[in-house]
């Protein structure tokens, strides 16, 4: 097909007019605070910036940990049957759906239980979520007895001082729920085996010792048990079974954070009796195959010795190591993309 000079000129002119019209349209949209797809993508995002944006979207969901304790519960064991042995059932309610998170351990002979069990949940900040907790007295021979129940909004707990909220139970007593944020990286499990020697005797026969590992949420003003061992009957030189403890639950993965190790004499009727305690860190325990003295609160004399027979961490996730020049690379990529886009517009 032969195209005359006049036809070629007309086509060129038509093309020029289309380009001018599109440019005018862009300017008009930009002046009205709008952006066309071409303007929006005139400076493409670098791979590093795209990853950052993706990570921001992921952060809308947080991993949280729920722990529970109660005070002044009503003793429902019955006349002549000692003190209640409470445990708690926990259910997550979201968008009209119920998900049973699980059940705590049973705390024997206590109307002031602090459960060491914790429950992990994914919290979407824009979504209404609540937990329902029912407290029950375990009855070995017969039916378990309800001790009270309460519901907590996740947002209300997070908005409360110290991220802890208490509610009165209709049957009597207070139930307290605490929410803490879980580190993004798993710090693994602490395998710990302890042995005691010449512990304090507070019984007619011999003490029945157990130990607790505790953490603090308020800088050491109060301590919350994260792990409670079995008790060893009539033995002042107990060799406890190896414990497995979530390191994030114990110290948020900070191996230098202070923790508390407390020793108690198990009581079949009433609260356990303290035998002494000391403060340490996970790092200190791992590095110490030596002994630790136990001191009772207001008594200066040491009561026995604790030996660390085994202490190691397994299953910890490695921290993501980013190259130090990542920010510089991102800036260079974006500057180059902007320069290229400017050159294309000028052409």
What's the SSE blueprint?
Blueprint: H1 5-31, H2 37-40, H3 47-58, E1 61-71, E2 86-94, E3 97-103, E4 114-124, E5 129-137, E6 145-153, H4 154-159, E7 164-168, E8 174-181, E9 189-197, E10 209-215, E11 224-228, E12 243-246, H5 247-251, E13 259-265, E14 273-280, H6 282-287, E15 291-295, E16 302-314, H7 326-346
Antiparallel strand pairs: 1-4, 1-8, 2-3, 2-5, 5-6, 7-8, 9-12, 9-16, 10-11, 10-13, 13-14, 15-16
Structure description:
Residues 29-59, 319-347 are annotated as: Disordered. Residues 48-59 have a biased composition (Basic residues). One of its GO terms (cellular component) is plasma membrane. With 347 residues, the chain is α+β, with helices and mostly antiparallel strands. It folds into 2 domains: 59-181, C2 domain (Immunoglobulin-like, Sandwich), CATH 2.60.40.150; 189-314, Immunoglobulin-like. The chain has 7 helices and 16 strands. The protein has helices spanning 5-31, 37-40, 47-58, 154-159, 247-251, 282-287, 326-346, and strands at 61-71, 86-94, 97-103, 114-124, 129-137, 145-153, 164-168, 174-181, 189-197, 209-215, 224-228, 243-246, 259-265, 273-280, 291-295, 302-314. The protein has a 4-stranded antiparallel β-sheet with strand order 4-1-8-7. It is elongated. The two termini are 31 Å apart.
Short overview:
The chain has 347 residues and is an alpha+beta fold.
CATH superfamily of the largest domain: C2 domain
CATH architecture of the largest domain: Sandwich
State the share of residues found in helices, binned by percent.
Answer: 10-25%
Work out the helix count: 7
Number of strands: 16
Unreliable runs = 33-43
Radius of gyration of CA atoms, rounded to a whole number: 32 Å
**Tally of separate domains:** 2
Largest sheet: 4 strands, antiparallel
Give the averaged pLDDT, no decimals.
Answer: 84
Strand order, sheet with most strands: 4-1-8-7
Broad shape? elongated
- CATH domain class of the largest domain: Mainly Beta
N- to C-terminal separation? 31 Å
> β content, as a range?
35-45%
- By secondary-structure content and strand pairing, the structural class works out as alpha+beta
GO cellular component, one term: plasma membrane
Organism: Skeletonema marinoi
Biased composition (Acidic residues): 326-335
Protein name: C2 domain-containing protein
